[in-house]
Amino acid sequence: MKKKTKYLFLICFFVLALPLFLLANGEAETFEVKSKHFGYLTSVEYKKFSKQLMVYFEEKGDAYRVSFKEGCVYGPGSMVYGLENVAQIYHQADENEKDIIIAGHFDKIFTSEKEEKIIKKNISDYEKIKSYLAVRIVPNDYLERIGKENAIFREDLTGTYTMLVFDLPSKSMSIKPESAKKWKKDTSELIKSGIENTIIKYPAEVSKRIILNDLVMWYLLGGEIFTTTNIFKLDRYKGCVGKHGALVIVPNRHAIITYPINNKGVLKAVNVLIPMAKKMYDEGPGSISSELYWYYNKKFVSLPFDTEKSAFYPPAEFTAMLNKITENK
């Protein structure tokens, strides 16, 4: 009886201690218990997400190690890939899309790494890298964070910068001025080329909406961070610009809203667009500007306002345009 008890004790000890031993030695990591990094996933989602992730990286080979505990994947060359972003995308995706989220996410990252190497290898050859050029609109504080000395940019809309970047599958990469010197191209030419590339690759989805019964607004929307670059080609979108230009807001990276100016309804539109810009800017994602702009003669003029005082301070040329519209009526 004592021997049986002894053997039973040893078996129980072995069963309980083995997983701890393996974990301590880094040879195994269970994903059955949900890590704190994935608290927003349901138990069913987490189990499915974890298994799909393991299958994906098992096919990649021993160079990759998944750590659910630390919420990342360790790759070759000390590379570390976070999992929280892809898990959030997975959580928000429709059920019929979940099976392709992980592969789509990491395939883009690995393709970006390959293309980044190509760019760095050919950084002195403009003809080989020009197809990667793109332009995005960023808020002022974005450039302050990375440093103006590390970017190629110009100012077109008050409170923002028009920034030249390399467009890679999973990210955009800033371009240092010293790189441009090798190409012997000025900033204006580079940004023009970047805008054309961006507009072709990321056209906006355009729709007309009627606000407050009689205000015709045009929405230019898209899921990419480059959607707002379409603001530089508004004239290409039929109806978005009126006889006297357009009121424009660019509250976040996914939206441009315009009101074509053809009559004195512009004053009513101002009162609609000011709070709309503020609300959409606050909500994001990718907030850009809460300002209101007047697009006229291919330039963007800021139309200052004070929401607390309910005051609007249009520049002289805008006031002159309003007077002209009123006189014509």
Task: Give an overview of the whole structure.
With 329 residues, this protein is an alpha+beta fold. The protein is 42% helix and 22% strand. It is built from ten helices and 15 strands. It has helices at 2-24, 43-60, 84-92, 98-121, 126-129, 140-146, 177-183, 187-201, 266-283, 316-328; strands at residues 65-67, 72-74, 80-82, 133-139, 152-154, 160-168, 171-174, 205-211, 215-221, 246-252, 255-260, 293-296, 299-302, 305-306, 311-312. The strands form four sheets. Strands 8-9-11-10-12-13 form a six-stranded antiparallel beta sheet, with helices on one face. Strands 4, 5, 6 and 7 form a four-stranded antiparallel beta sheet that branches. Strands 1-2-3 form a three-stranded antiparallel beta sheet. A hairpin with a 2-residue loop joins strand 10 and strand 11. Mean pLDDT is 88; it is low at 5-30.
Give the structure's gist in a few sentences.
42% of the residues lie in helices and 22% in strands. The chain is built from 10 helices and 15 strands.
Output the number of helix runs: 10
Q: What is the alpha-carbon Rg in Å?
A: 27 Å
The share of residues in helices is 40-55%
Give the low-confidence spans. 5-30
Arrangement of strands in the largest sheet: 8-9-11-10-12-13
Instruction: Give the amount of beta strand, in percent.
Output: 15-25%
| Shape, per Cα inertia axes | globular
Oligomer: single chain
Give the SSE order as H and E letters.
HHEEEHHHEHEEEHHEEEEHEEEEH
Which structural class best describes the helix and strand composition? alpha+beta
Calculate the terminal CA-CA distance, rounded to whole Å: 108 Å
**What's the number of domains?**
3
Give the rounded overall mean pLDDT: 88
Report the sheet with the most strands, covering strand number, pairing sense and barrel closure.
6 strands, antiparallel
Give a count of the beta strands, DSSP E runs of length 2 or more.
Answer: 15
